[in-house]
Amino acid sequence: MIHFVSTSCTGEMCQCGKAAKHKVGEEIPSDEPCLTCGESWHWSSAPRTTPACDDLYHLAGSIRRNLTSYVCCACFTSLFGTATGCALTTLERKALAYYEALRSDTILALTLLCPRCGGDLDDLVCRGCKTRYRL
Question: Is the pLDDT of residue 11 over 90?
Answer without folding.
Answer: yes
